[in-house]
Amino acid sequence: MTDRFDLTGYSDGDVDTNDSTVRSLESLAAERYSRRQTLFGGIGATTMALFGTTMLTACDETEVDSSPIVVPGAVAATSAGRLVTLTAQTAADVISGSWAQTSGEPVQLVKVDATTSTFIAPAVSQPSDLTFTYSVTTHRGANASGTSTVRVSPAVLGFAAVAKNLNDVVTVPAGYTVTVLTRLGDPLAAGVSAYSNNGTDGDFDKRIGDHGDAFAFYGLSAAGARDDNSNTRGLMVQNHENLSVQYLHPNGPTNVSSGPRPQAEALKEMMAHGVSITEYVDAGNRKWGYVPNSPLNRRITPGTQMQFAGAAAASAMLRTAYSPDGTRGRGTINNCAHGVTPWATYLTAEENWAGYFRRDNSGSGTDNTLRSPEELVALRRYGVNSNTGNYAWSTVQSADTLYTRWDARVKGASAVEDFRNEPNQFGWVVELDPYDPNSTPRKRTSLGRFGHEGAFVQAAAGKKLAVYMGDDARREYLYKFVSSATFTEADGRSANRLAMGDKYLDTGTLYVARFEADGTGRWLPLVFGQVPDRPATSNTPAYSFADQADILINARLAGDALGATPMDRPEWTAGNPLTGEIYLTLTNNNASNRPLNDTNAANPRHYNDPYGPANRAQYGNPNGHIIRLRENGDDPAATSFRWDIYLFGADSADAGPNVNLSGLTAENDFSSPDGLYFSRETNPAGKVKPLMWIQTDDGALSDRTNNMMLAAMPGSVGDGGAQTITNTGADGATATQTTFVGAPATVATLRRFLVGPVECEITGIDTTPDGRTVFVGIQHPGEDGTPDAPSSNWPDTQGNANAPATARPRSAIVAITKDDGGVIAL
C-alpha cells in the first residue's frame, strides 16, 4: 500500500518585489506541488497550512499579527519574532515522528508532541527561507518524510494600534493578556501579612514600596545564581519614586504641611521609598507570579547603609554627624530611572530629592545667615529651599537621626555636629548587586550629582565604557561619564560585581553636552582646572570651584560655567543596540522656562496646545520631543557628535504643521515622552531592526487619553533634514527656529501598544531575554483622588468590571504576554 501527502492547490499572493534574487513563494509552492511526492510508510492525508489574511501581506503597514501553522509539503510566510507551528496528521500505524530543520538561519525547535513542533522566526535583514523536514516510521518499519519551507521577512510591528482612551484598565491589543504582578504593599518576607489596602498596614521595609518606577529583570538559574538567559525565573529590581500619601494612611496623612508629624506615619512613608528586589517565577507557559518569602527578596530604603565611592568620596562636603569622614551615608530616595551594567548590577538614580530637606531660608537669624555665599549658591541651584521639607519628616518629635537628618539647618559648630551637608549625600547614581542581599550599595560620585533621571550604560569590548544621564528639571543638561578603563567581556562575567563598578565607575571623566545649531554637538569635560568660575547672575554671586569633588557635587553649577545647552527636562536615555545611537526623552517645558525668544535648535518649539473643554492655554513645549545623537566614529569616548530630533510629541487632532513636525496620526500621537527602552539583543526584537518602547508622563493630552506606551522602529540620525518652523506666542508674536528633524513617523514605524488606567504614569519596562514577556510599570493610578473617593480603582479593575468604587489604587507591575507565545509587538 502506498500513502502520500495529499496536497491541494495553494496561492499565497506574496510576491517579493524587493529582491530579484529571491524566488517568490508562489513559484516555490508551484514547484513543490508539481512534484506530487509519493511517500511510503503509511502516512495519512495531511492538512494544508492555515493562514490569517493579514499574515499573507507581510509588507502592509497596517498588518496585525497572525502566526502560521505549517504542514509537510507546504510553503508559508511570516516575519521575524512570530511563532510558527509545524504540524502533521498521521495514520494509525505511524509509531514515531519528528520535525528537524534542514536549512536556513538556525532556530530552536520546541517539540510539543510527536506531530507538532514550534519555533520563533529569527531576525533577518532580508527575506530568508528556512526548510524543515517531517520524518516518520511505521509499525512495518517503513520510513517517509516531507519538507516544508517558511519564508521569514524582516521584523514588522504586528498589532493593531490601541485607541486613546480614559478607561480605568491597562488596555492592550487583541491577542495579548495582562497579568497584574507585584503591587504596592505586597509582602516580601515570611510572616508579613497580606496588604489590607485601607491605610492600616505597616512593615514597609518588608513590602513593595509606592510609586514604582524604572526596573530591570535579572535572570536566575535553578540554583538561584545569575543566569542572563533565564526566561522563567529572575529578580525584579524596581525603583520607588514617591508616594500617593493620601492612600497610605486610614484618612490621609496628619500635619503633612507643617508638622509635627506622627512618628509611625513618617516611618511608613520613609520605608515606602527606595528600591525593592523581588523574585519572579514563571509557573509554566508564561504564567508569572512572585515569591513572597524568597531569601533573595530585599528592600533598600532611606535607612539602608550606603558607601560613597569615586572622586568625591570623603569630601568635606559629605561630612555629617552620621558620617564624620564623608564616606558613609544612609539610604536612597526619590529613585526614578535606572541603568543596567554588563556585570549585572543595577544603577538606581536619585531624582527629586532636594525638596525633602528642611531649611528656614528667609529673614535674619535663619539658616541663610549661617551659610557661606558658596553654600547658598549651591543650595539655591539645587532647590534646597523648603521651610518644612516634603512630608515634614524632620518635625517628628524624636532624637533619632533617622528623622532629624531631614533638618539641614546649621546647628552645630561644624558639619560633623549636624546635618547641614545631608542634601549633598543625595542626587547620586547608586549601584547595587541584586544577587547579594548582604552587599552594601555604593553611591558612585564620579557620575556627578544632580536630579538623576537614569544612567544608560554603553559598553563594547575594547572601548571605554560610557554612562549617559539626564538631569530631569526644566532647562537642565545631558551628561556623559566615560571610564578610564577599557571594557573587557571577561569583566562582564565577573562574580565580584561591585568590584567591577569600582573599576569602571569610579575613575573617568564626566562631560556635559552642548548642542550646536548646525546639528553637531560637543561633550565639555567637567574637570577641575578646565571649568571656569560660574559667573554671577542677577540673583547669585559668582561661584569658584575648590576641587574636583566640588565640581562633581555641584555638577549643575559646572555645567552652567561651561555653557551647556539647557534642555526641556532631560529624562531617560537609551541606546540602539545596532547603531549605538543614544536617545534622550525631553518631556516638556512651559512658557516661563522656554519662552518664544529662547528656543534653540535642540529645543525648537514654542506653541499653544489648548487643554480641555475650556481650551486652557498651554504655551511652551507642552508635548515634548525625543532627541538622538551619534558619537563621532561610533566611539562612546568621543568628544563630539551629530544629532537630530527623532520625534516631536503632538496632539494630532489639533496640532498644525509647525507643531506636528513628525506627522503623527490618531494611531501614534503622544505627549510628554518619559521612559525609553530598546529590546534585548537576545531576541528578534533587538536585532537587525531593534524595537524601541516609548512611555509617557503626560499632562497636556490627558484631557483626551490616559498615559500610554508606544512601539517604534526608529531610523538613524540624519534620515530627515533641516527644517525651519514658525513659533507663536500668547500675544500673537511669531519667531522662527531652524532645527533638524528625523524622518516622519508612519503607522509602520510607530504605533500605540498600551494605554494605562486613570491618572497613572507609565514607568518602567523590561522583557525576558526571549522577548515573549514584557513587564510594564503603572505608577500612581488615581493620584488626584482621596481616601474616601479614589479617582481610580486599578488594579482591582483589571479584568473585573465590578471592582468596588472604594478600592484604593495601587502602583504595580504587569506582565504582558502574547496569546500565541510570540515575541511581543512583532
Automatic annotation (TrEMBL):
<feature type="region of interest" description="Disordered">
    <location>
        <begin position="589"/>
        <end position="619"/>
    </location>
</feature>
<feature type="compositionally biased region" description="Polar residues">
    <location>
        <begin position="589"/>
        <end position="602"/>
    </location>
</feature>
<feature type="region of interest" description="Disordered">
    <location>
        <begin position="778"/>
        <end position="810"/>
    </location>
</feature>
<protein>
    <submittedName>
        <fullName>Alkaline phosphatase PhoX</fullName>
    </submittedName>
</protein>
<feature type="compositionally biased region" description="Polar residues">
    <location>
        <begin position="789"/>
        <end position="803"/>
    </location>
</feature>
<dbReference type="Pfam" id="PF05787">
    <property type="entry name" value="PhoX"/>
</dbReference>
<dbReference type="InterPro" id="IPR008557">
    <property type="entry name" value="PhoX"/>
</dbReference>
